[in-house]
Design a protein that fits this description.
The protein has about 180 residues and is α/β, with parallel strands linked by helices. About 35% of the residues lie in helices and about 30% in strands. The strands form 2 sheets. Strands 5-4-3-6-7-8 form a 6-stranded mixed β-sheet, sandwiched between helices. The protein has a two-stranded antiparallel sheet with strand order 1-2.
């Protein structure tokens, strides 16, 4: 039996984020369903659920990161939700964002926010399909001197991304899957 928060997250994703039809995904693949996770991750109810579930999941995985973050913009609300949830359940985690490319002005960094070289972090994602976004975030974090403990996703579409990330040596935890959502 799924915990009540997990069931609530699945319901919220199905109500707000899942669309059926013909879609081209960021990976270039086509699909008969699309998960616009931002409609859940940026909602008040979604932020609360993802914060609690995400914090529980990373602690159950045995990860003790300094921070959480990933490729902007899909990862941003996930990271913020987990960081906020940790405020009342220490140890406190901070959030950061990984830019798709460094800006030509300011610090010129790709990793922005609460991140410094030497930090051990967890990369977060809204949806894992091919694992490409997580791999880009991991590369940027490593280039700036960080260590990645693992990858935490809200939804695993179960289309090979987890296997790609695990083959690259990264443990992956997902709060739900397309199968659990009844999409496969």
């Amino acid at each position: 039996m799924k915990p009540p928060d997990s069931e609530a997250l699945d319901r919220l994703l199905l109500e707000r984020s899942v669309r059926r039809g013909h879609f081209v995904l960021a990976s270039g693949r086509t699909s008969t369903f699309y998960i616009d996770c931002r409609l859940t991750t940026m909602s008040a109810a979604g932020l609360v659920l993802i914060g609690r579930l995400g914090l529980d999941a990373l602690r159950e995985a045995g990860w003790a990161p300094r921070g959480v973050g990933g490729l902007t913009m899909g990862a941003d609300p996930v990271a913020y939700a987990i960081a906020a949830a940790s405020a009342s359940r220490p140890p406190v985690l901070d959030a950061f964002s990984v830019r798709k490319e460094a800006k030509a002005h300011g610090t010129g960094r790709r990793v922005e926010g609460n991140f410094t070289a030497g930090d051990a972090v967890v990369v977060v994602e809204d949806v894992i399909t091919t694992g490409g976004s997580a791999l880009k975030a991991i590369e940027a974090i490593r280039e700036e001197g960080g260590t990645v403990l693992g990858v935490l996703a809200v939804v695993d579409r179960e289309e090979g991304g987890r296997a790609v990330l695990e083959a690259a040596g990264h443990q992956v935890v997902a709060l739900t899957t397309s199968t659990r959502l009844g999409l496969k």
